[in-house]
Amino acid sequence: MRIGNALKLACFGLWANKFRVLSAMMGIVIGLFAVIVLISIAVGVKDTLLKQMGSLGAEQILVMPGRVLDTANGEKDFLSGITSVPSTLTYDDAKAVEAVPHVKTVTPQLETVSKAAYGEQNVQAVLVGSTHQYSRVQHAALAEGRFFTDEEQQSKEKVVVLGSNIHDALLGKTAQPQPGSTGAPAAEERAWWQRALDSFMAGTVVSAQETTLIGQKLTIGEHTYTVIGVLEPNATLGSSTDNNIVMPIETALASTDMKYLNKMIVEADSTDVIDEVDGAVFSAIKQNHKEIDFSVVKQDQMLGAIDNVTTILQVMLLGITAVALLISGTGIMNVMVMSVRERTREIGVRKAIGATTFEIMAQFFFETLLLCLIGGLVGIGLGYGFIELWNHYIDAFTLTLPLWAVKLALGSTMVIGGLFGIYPALKAARMKPSHALRFE
Amino acid sequence: MLVLAFYSEMKNLGGRDMIQLHRIKKAFHTGSGKQDILRSVDLHVNTGEYVAIMGKSGSGKSTLLNILGALDSADSGEYVLAGKPVHKMRQAKRTGLRNNEIGFVFQQFQLIPNLSVYQNVLLPLTYGRKKLGRKKARVMQLLEEVGLADKRKQKPARLSGGEKQRAAIARALVNEPSILLADEPTGSLDETTTETILQLFDRVHQQGTTIVVITHDQEVANRAQRVIHLRNGVLV
User: Fold this and answer.
1) Predicted ipTM?
2) Which end of chain A is less enclosed by CB atoms within 10 A, N or C?
3) How many Å is the Cα radius of gyration of chain A?
4) Which domains, from first to last, does chain B contain?
5) CA of B227, closest CA in chain A: separation in Å?
6) Mutation for testing the B interface, residue in A21, A347, A353 having most B CBs under 10 Å
């Protein structure tokens, strides 16, 4: 039997029935499009999370309130969650950790939500108290101005660095970033008379022409702070600094009611001593606490947890797409069975003039396989196009299409074509020529 | 015409019985029980003979043609075609026999609608085991002989009934068969077109091809050298 001949006849068969082929193909196109897009979403989310958590650095350790339960094999079980207890971590704990051997830096962070006012603008922001290491550890680059120094931190200077959203909102450039805020509408949305009034009231009122708040004073609670820097937009999932107002931790402790640390990032000398430092940090903090109500987490533990979560996400998405593909495969099989029925006489003629059972089977099998393959390639192409468009126009997170996803998609189309092509092919091949020729 | 002439030369070399049917029986199981279609059919057709088998509707003509064409097998009896015992052949061998030795012409033409006239005529060569060189040239010569060379690219739907049947005859002859089996070949055609097709059959016969035509049309049967009647599953 010449496989090439059967393949050629299958191509003829598809070409001759192109409209039916197109309609049958739609299912597989949509199925494969879904596979590609959903996998790229899952991988994109995973990459973004890993990148974000990866920013912790392999030599860094995260100390946070609450306790992460251990699994049976002694690993941190993030999936079971962190016990929700109020933070008891203090700045003194951070100072104790600083004394641990091989600890290079400690970056404690206090965090609360507060209102900040500048002129008529009043916004809700995440108030962060930290050290001068904050911008480096959080990878928060400065758009303008500067970050506060160690000296300013020690002398409790009332200086702040603004996240980009907060800066824009206080300038009236954008709508209030936080829900529930009493912020004024954006400058562009104001009526002409409001903008004119603004321009007459210089000093205490935000001017639409103002482009920076560097050097300006804003009010948080009962205190006034000088803006010394503005952070660049940092739109990452979960831990964006865009809505933050960062001030020295000593200042925060003195002028706000923040007392307990939200987290503490400890940096070791090198990754070689990370396990040693991990244990020593735990011991150092434990000395100040009656019970273990905090967790010390290394980067690899965090990444492992994210990996677990994203793997579950991927498995779920793959399950959904598998069902979608199964449905489209069944659809194709039905179309092919109908096609075999419609072409019964043709099959009879082919058999009468010398087509073997295997040739008929191969022809219909290849027709289904080719149909799935072409549909699959179109689906992958459309998925790729969607990903390109998404990455070009949408900044939320980047969709990533790994090569294995393309291979998986192509493989699954071949499997679908193979599996769902067998039945129609057998149905066609088993026909008796004398019966098929009489079929009405 | 050269192709057909060479073909007839080859056929005349045999000089033996083309078809030998001996006590062929065939029954079908229907809802009302077993129905004998062919009771005990004996038939001898010589090489190069033109035979017409006549019978009323339901007399078993089509069943006999299916057996002669190796499309179906008899329940019992012996069938030898061109010296080959068809009754002993398995399905695969029968398929090869159909491709090599038999050309079919059907009442409803049975051209594949999505293929062009040229592709329809080429089809037996596609499945053929014969090492036929210059397939394209052979198809074109046959299309010229049946007067369809200029319509080779057209789909069957755009042909007249006579043209469709001429295309079907070209397809039946393309693989140089030993025998041409025709089932009511003019049943769907008007008188003028019928005459054209019968003239084409005459020409093919004159060139030495064995022809067995199944018909209920006396005019068609009159063109044959021998007319056999099938009544109640027996040839008379």
Assistant:
1) 0.87
2) C
3) 32
4) 2-14+49-66+90-230 (3.40.50.300)
5) 24
6) A353
